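Priority: medium. Attachment 1 of 2:
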């Protein structure tokens, strides 16, 4: 199921970020981080989350 697939949330986060929807992107990045297991992907998602405007 896509709800448990971290890449689905990461893609949603990136699309929201590109559309300027920072709060939705933030929520999607956080959900992706809850699900991700690989350290390199975790670091990438953490970096993207930190780059969002406050």
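Attachment 2 of 2:
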């Amino acid at each position: 199921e896509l709800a448990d697939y971290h890449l689905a949330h990461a893609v949603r986060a990136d699309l929201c970020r590109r559309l300027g929807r920072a709060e939705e992107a933030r929520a999607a990045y956080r959900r992706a981080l809850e699900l991700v297991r690989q350290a390199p992907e975790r670091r990438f998602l953490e970096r993207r989350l930190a780059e969002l405007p406050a």
